[in-house]
Structures are given as structure tokens and as C-alpha cells.
Write the C-alpha cells for this entry.
Amino acid sequence: MSTVDGLGLYRTVRLIRRFEERAVELVRSGDIVGGIHPYLGQEGVAAGVCATLGKDDIVTGTHRGHGHVLAKGADPARMLAELCGRATGLNRGRGGSMHAADFGVGVFGANAIVGAAGSIATGAAWARRRLGMDTVAVNFFGDGAVNEGMLLEAFNLAALWRVPVVFVCENNGWATTMRVADAVAGSITARAEAFGIPATTVDGQDPEAVYAAAEAAVARARAGGGPAFLECHTERFDAHHTFEHKARLGYRSAEELERARSRDPVDIQGARLGQIERERVEHDVETLLAEAVTFALESPFPDPVGALDDLYASGLRPRQGSGV
Amino acid sequence: MPRLSYLKALNRALADELAADERVFVLGEDVRFAASNLTAGLVKRFGQDRVLDTPLSEQGFTGFATGAALAGMRPVIEFQIPALLFLSFEQIVNHAHKFSLMTGGQCRVPVTYVLTGAGSRTGWAGQHSDNPYTLFAHTGVKTVVPATPADAYGLLVSAIRDDDPVVVFAPAGALAVRDDVDFATLAPIPLGSGRVHREGTDITVVAIGHLVHDALAVAEELTGEASVEVFDPRTVYPFDWDGLAASVRKTGRLVVVDDSNRFAGLGAEIIASVTEALPLLAPPARVSRPDGAVLPFSAELDRAVQPTREQLAAAINLTLKKD
């Protein structure tokens, strides 16, 4: 076991927290169109898991995916530029919030289809092993995904072929407006155990607890032990999607929300640091994000002429929609 | 000259690409024992690591191939039943196909999907007899429907070497076709390049897949009455519009025979695109499956909803009389 870098974890959860708060502001100001699924409250999961990974390791994320992208090491300025639809964005303005990717640091994309990335992460990890590398892939998904058949197919393939993939379920208690209790028959971990995948439940609000559990799972996968499963109990502090800031759907009571927010991963990790080092991190994060916002908002929008550039890796150019 | 069957040509293309590139591997259901014969002999030659038998998990192993491709491999998936494409449509269209654009060109997804036995197989009924190449062409996925053994070889090789996802439909009606082929001439055929199988001056018949052979037979029957040119696009997406335009400029008349359903089928697109661009001497015609067809079981009923030579001959004659 390596020693946990508590300061590094704090920096990551703080970065994600403040990034998301700034992003929500940019949704309100109209600079981010289409809205976002804020990762607020779940920062400890992405931070704890990604701290156990190397640059070449792979992650696949979700529609609520900003935390995974940032924790894996993508540049926050280019990430924010992507959310703002700018040419300087990670995906050159072609992906946005739900598809942000940075293959240079192993982010094989946030993915907007619930449960679909499990098999992609499994295939990627299998391929890297075949190519002689000791890469591990981590597939993040929410509690809503555990009822998707294609995710269960991925569990089966991963276990059958002892693929170095770690499945991380971020159980925040809600699939949009549906409670876990109304959606999940049996248990979440039993789904993994049914395929012979060892499953651990961990407090997702404690970044160091997540780190410890993830480190064991990742080490096991890297050593050839096959897939592992982590269920991280976490809390969604904000809406499913920012459209709810206007359309109040009323499925969550004020009391429940207050209870959810009472265990804050940023506070939990911050309390482990001295005031001076904590404030230094906070100052650094503010500076970084101020620069990121400036970078994003001052970046040019992509040229519509190239809207379908990159549709084909082979460079094929499709016909235009109008022959005129 | 040696005889080469269409199925053997596909098998040979796969073997050649497995031998040429360590990153190529095959996966699918029952590929180890080559239930469809596509993968015959490959396990013995390349081992089970490169010819990967999968459980019945079409969505799972199709997504798995996308991930493997993103990580540097070049997977070839075999689907033995065309309707399995409906199960894996989401993985192909919504992930494999979209990754390049959505990531701003950060990655490539070189997966090949081979359909061994697309279209009617006579007696396999509603859920085993589709030929959904138009669906993939519509979504922009590169889509190939070879008609002859040499084209099957050359197009499968190109599909595997292509950096984008490519679906290769091998029609059941073409698998048994055999040609005299000089193996030394087998070569990759670029995607998007059509072929004139038979030159003519009165009318252009566009035929897809196994229907190319029907079109050639009808053209032969009409010798003396009409000079029929048979154009085979080979790749339905991207389509060889220049090749087809050259043919239609010469003949001035157009009939399309294809195994799509009529409504919003490939024939509709071909006729619309040609008539937008070129004047014709007579209204064009299509021969296809009926609107929204489901193939019924009983052999006579199965044949009743497939395009026939009689329908094609009638469409050609009608088009020739209309000017």
C-alpha cells in the first residue's frame, strides 16, 4: 500500500467542487448551453479512485462526468472551454459536457448513454493487456445503470476473460427522479458477485476511504486478478440536471437534501489538513479556475464550416444537407 | 483458373489480414467452430486468442470491440444473423460511429462488422431474414455489400484496414457464388468505388449485392431488345455518385433493384440523388421489398416479398417505353 496523498486528494475534490460551481454559474449566464449534470457532492469518488491510477490507465465516465475527467488529469481550462462550446475545448467543441474526452490522459470519454461504457472499458483494458501493457481501466457508472442489461453483459465478459477493469458504481440514491429502492431489486453488489466479481461497499463521501478501496481493486486487476467492483455510497448535492433549477420537480424534500449535504467530501478531506496548507490549495484552485474561465470565455467558437470535420477518422467528407 | 466461392473469399480476406496485422482479431458467436464457415481454419492457424468465441452477448461484445479499437486493436465481429444488428445498433451507431466526431478527432474506431448471410435464407422467417444496410447507410456508418467473390475479398480487406467502423453485408443469396479467380489478382478494393459489370447504352440498372447476379441475368435475357448497363455500387455508403452519374449520363434511364424495404429504402435515395443532378429520358423506377416488409415464413410467401427478376424486367421495359 502506498501512502495516501491527503493534500492531493483535497486539491482534487476542491478543484472539482469549485469547477462545478463555476460551471453552474456559466449555465445561468448562458455561456454553457444545454446545461450540465453537476458532479457536486460526489467529488470524493472520482478523486479517490483516480488517485490510484497512472496516466496510461483508462477511465470511462458518465453523463455526470466532469469529476472523472478532471480527476484523471485533464486541463480544467480546456474542459471548461469544451463546456462553453469553444474551439479550444478538449473535444474542439464537438462533445460538450456529456462527451468530454482526453485520450492523452486516458479519459476515453464521458458517455451519455447509461451503462454503455462498461463494455467499452472492458474491451479497452483487454486490448491493452493483449498489446503487452499493464493498463487498468475504470468504468464509472451510477446506480441507475445497474439495471441496464448491457452493463451486466460487460460484467460477464470481464469476469470470464479476467480483464483488468474496475467497475465503480456511484450510488447517489437517485436515478434522475427514481429512488434506488424503487429501481433496484436485490442488491447492487450482488449483481457483481453473481459473476464472481469481488464487490466492496465504501463510504463515497470519504476520499481516503475510496482511495484505499480503489487501490486494492486496481492493484488486484493490474496483477492479473481480474475485475473488481466498488459500490461507493455518495450524495448528489444538486439537481439531476441544471434544467431542474427552473423546473422544480419536487421529488426530493428539503430535509432529505439537507441530510445529503451534511456529509461533504470537501469538508471531510479538508479537516485532515492544517489551515495553512488547506488555504494554499484553495487559493491555487481559485487562481486556476479564474484563468480557466477567462480562457474559456475568450476562446473562439468553432467555425461552422468544419462542423462535421472528424466525422470520419479516414477523412471522408459527407455530402452537405443542401445541394444548393 | 481456380474457382473461388464468395464465402471462401471472405475467409481468405480474414486470414490474410490476421496474418498481416497482429492488431486484427476476430470475435463473435460460434467462430471457433466456424458455424457459418466464415472463420473456417482460423483457430488452427491463429489460435483462440485471435479468434475469440463470445457468449451470447451482442451488446456486450459489440461495445467490447469499440473499447478494444479505441485502445489500439482492429476487431472484426461476425454476426451470423442480420437481426443481431438491431440488438447492437446502439453500440455501433451511437458509440463506435460517433466517437470520432464527438471527441473532436482524438480517436479512431476501426471495427469491422461482418454479416454472414444477410437477407432471406429461405425458411428462416421474420427474425432471421432482414437486410438492413439502408439503416446503417442512413446513419452514416460505412456500409459495404459485395456481390462477387473477388469484390468480397477486396472490400473486406479494405474494411478491416479502414480507420472507421465498417459494416460488411454478405447476402445469403451471394454466399454460394463461385467465380474463376486468379488468386494473384485478389487485391483491396477501395470503399466508395462502384463497378460496371456489364456495359449498355439504353438504361442503367443499379443492383445491390446478390441482386447484381439477377440484374445480369435479366440484362442477358433482354439482349436484342435493350442494351442494359449494370452498375454495382459495391459500397452503399459512401456511395459512388460519380460512377453512377457517368453511367446515367450515357444511358439517360435508371432502374434500381435492391433488397431494402421500399419506403425510405436505398432505391429512394439513389433515384432522388440522380434526378436532382441529371435529366432523364424517362421517369426512373425501383424494384424492392414492399413498404415496411417483414419476411413471412412459407417459401412462396418469402419469395413474394423479395425483388424478382420478373419485376426487374417489367420495370426496365416500362422505363424504356416511357420516353
User: Anything to note?
Assistant: Residues 202 and 251 of chain B are 5 Å apart (CA to CA). Chain B touches chain A through 47 residues (CB under 8 Å).
